[in-house]
Amino acid sequence: MPSTLPLGDPAPADGLLPASAADGAAGRDFGVYLHVPFCRVRCGYCDFNTYTATELRGVSQSDYAGHAVREVEFAARALEASGLPARPVSTVFFGGGTPTLLPPGDLGAMLGAVRDAWGLAPGAEVTTEANPDSVDADDLRRLADAGFTRVSFGMQSAVPHVLATLERTHDPERIPLVVEWARQAGLQVSLDLIYGTPGESLADWERSLDTALACAPDHLSAYALIVEPGTKLARQIRSGQVAEPDDDLEADMYELADARLAAAGYGWYEVSNWAKDDAHRSRHNLSYWLGHDWWGVGPGAHSHVGGVRWWNVKHPAAYAQRVLAGESPAAGRETLDAETRRVERVLLLTRIRDGLSVAELEASGRTAVAGLIADGLVDAKAALAGSVVLTLRGRLLADAVVRRLLPEDESSVLS
Q1: I want to staple 43 with a disulfide (CB 3.0 to 4.6 A). Which of 167, 266, 375, 407 is the partner?
Q2: Which residues contact 409 (CB under 8 A, 6 or more apart)?
Q3: C-beta separation of 310 from 33 below 8 A
């Protein structure tokens, strides 16, 4: 089942933000995330807030776009009433779940609501996730016509037995087809891969990389499989049905991916993400790492505006009840204190290639940089220029690097 929501303070029904949010939002880009919580089947490794048809008690999938539009309209009113400056939307991201289980017209209506509420900045990036078996050429053309600029396909692997372990339903031979259809529609293409699946060999992973690179996507993400508590995969590992992922093998897989992608002309810009060039980076995901503002629409979606973070109720039925009543769907929220914001900034900026300014570190962190260089975890040339940038080895040990950069009392919050 999906993971639980965090604890927090009660969220007001009117959605108003504290006065501090207006100051905190100054100079920040604004994005919108729209969560579509539907899947045909639940993959055994997934703990995202998603629901299959049999789990949608008290609500219809066909009504969902209307509910999301209601929240967008509510969000625009709440931000204005909170004194937040009107900002055009720089990036829009439809995630899930499988957003493309909804008809292109529904996704277009949701995007239209965002455009009507705030306007889109010139050159705005508009992405949807999609499974390879959830779209055809006509769907992709209709999405492009509606204003989408980019599609991220959940490829995960090109090896049938790996896909079977992950319980992914698509045929790997469909990947080149959907990539070509997306290109014909004028969409940028990203491919998402997962490595470290139980039973996956280094040769299997190499085959997946070769298949992905043969499609020449604009962007590629590669994530190590995380066994989340409460998932079917976690139960299978606990009972001995499948082996636990091997950390050393995962490190070998990451190094292979980085080498193969670099040789093909892709540059890493975040620990798990590579792009053909700066223009093809995921600007929406970069906005998270840079600490910009976004409103998250949908059940379980998280938002962050001006140093205030909140999260919506999880089940689509509870969500629908709130938005139809004109109330905030937020289940709880927190106002980030200075220490939390500082820790998160170190945690996030060290993950990206542009790095973290050494000047932002406390004295103990600045002192730690020399040792991290000596250990081969931080790039010496970048550090001399004033930035903490991870080496390849440092990317494999990113969490350990962050702990050494933070004062002991702050690094404990990462445990």
Answers
A1: 167
A2: none
A3: no
Residue 69: name the closest of 110, 124, 126, 13 by CA: 110
How far is 115 from 84, CA to CA, in rounded Å? 17
pLDDT in tens, 323-382: 999 999 999 999 999 999 999 999 999 999 999 999 999 999 999 999 999 999 999 999
* Beta strands at 308-312 and 356-357: parallel, antiparallel or unpaired: unpaired
* 3-state DSSP of 212-257: HHHCCCCEEEEEECCCCCCCHHHHHHHCCCCCCCCHHHHHHHHHHH
pLDDT band for 115, please (50, 70, 90 cuts). very high
pTM as predicted: 0.96
Q: Which residues have CB under 8 Å from 117's CB, separation 6+? A: 72, 73, 75, 76
Task: Output the CA angle 368-369-370, nearest 5 degrees.
Answer: 95
Going through 131-172 in order, the beta strands assigned E by DSSP cover: 150-156
Buried b (16+ CB within 10 A) or exposed e, 112-149: ebbbebbebeeebbbbbbbbbbbbeeebbbbbbebbbb
Q: Quick one: which of 413, 252, 282 has its CA closest to 338?
A: 413
13 close to 326: Cβ distance less than 8 angstroms? no
User: Beta partners for 91?
Assistant: 31, 125
Q: Please determine, for residue 132, whether its predicted confidence score (pLDDT) is greater than 50.
A: yes
CA angle 161–166–172, rounded 5-degree value:
55
Helix (H, G, I), strand (E, B) or coil at 121: strand
- Please choose, from the candidates 86, 113, 125, 148, the residue with its C-alpha nearest in 3D space to the C-alpha of residue 305: 86
Q: What does the pLDDT read at residue 1?
A: 46
Give CA–CA dist 249/66, Å, rounded. 46
Residue 17 φ/ψ, nearest 5 degrees: -100, 155
Beta-carbon neighbour count of residue 76 at 10 Å?
Answer: 18
- For residue 390, the 8-state DSSP code is B
Site of tokens 């991290």: 372
Residue type at position 27 = G
**In angstroms, rounded to a whole number, what is the distance separating the alpha carbons of residues 36 and 328?**
18
For 194-218, write each residue's pLDDT tens digit.
999 999 999 999 999 999 999 999 9
With tokens 């090109």, the residue in question is 158
Q: Decide: 324 and 60 in contact? Cβ < 8 Å.
A: no
